[in-house]
Amino acid sequence: MQNLAAPAPLPTPPHRTHATRISARALTKAFGPTRALAGVDVGVEAGEALAIMGPSGSGKSTLLLTLAGIERPDSGQVMYSPAGSAPVDVAAMPDRGRSELRRTDFGFVFQQGLLIPELTAIENVALPLMVLGIPRQAAEAEAAQWLGRMGLAGMEQRRIGELSGGQAQRVAIARAQVGGASVTFADEPTGALDRKTSSEVMDVLLASTVGRGASLVVVTHDATVAARCDRTLTMEDGRISHQFFRTQAAAAQAAAAQAGGTR
């Protein structure tokens, strides 16, 4: 497999302000008889990387989509606090308002990237800016800078099918960050990648989000990915069952790896 180029340096992480970026209270969501969320409280700080883990059907992806304003909860509140602006209740916003928020303040990275295969790498990254009305030349200039930060300089004109899986995910990360997202939501962003490429993609995902003081919320099955985040929540049956901070998660991962090696 082709190795990914090392990413260009990104800013040194600024001092954490511990300001709350998202605060959700008493979230419930049901799909028919299935309770996906059963009274969830969660907060995400500015500059924090938060991992959400749990078995399939535990509600972790529903929680991510609800925090991002893609799903509307049956009850509860999702308060988003933009820097320098008054908090807004995402759950109570009309569809148009939530769509606008996702264009301007939130970024998204999914397992398969969801890039447009007919477009080149630079066109995929520039697209969110052009949707906001930025002229194509200026949008592509900004997109080129982000691709350079991702270690993809010289690959701007390649179509998605001409890139490796790890390179395509870097394009997806650049697309999520090009508009200066305050919060990035990533659903299994390394799920389709091998271990080495997964680590490299997490390097650039963390550097491009918390590395510039933005927040990151990651849904993952991978304990290695979760251990690199500041905090990990484990969900069961629509509720948060456990919370680990980075040092605890790393210790638990090391213990599990040691136990596996002694079998």
UniProtKB/TrEMBL annotation:
Molecular function in Gene Ontology: ATP binding; ATP hydrolysis activity; transmembrane transporter activity
Keyword Coiled coil: no
PROSITE patterns: ABC_TRANSPORTER_2
Superkingdom of this protein's organism: Bacteria
InterPro entries: AAA+_ATPase, ABC_transporter-like_ATP-bd, ABC_transpr_LolD-like, MacB-like_ATP-bd, P-loop_NTPase
Domain annotation ABC transporter: ranges: 22-262
Keywords from the UniProt entry: ATP-binding, Nucleotide-binding, Transport
Cellular component terms per the entry's GO annotation: plasma membrane
CDD domains in UniProt: ABC_MJ0796_LolCDE_FtsE
Pfam families: ABC_tran (PF00005)
Protein name: ABC transporter ATP-binding protein
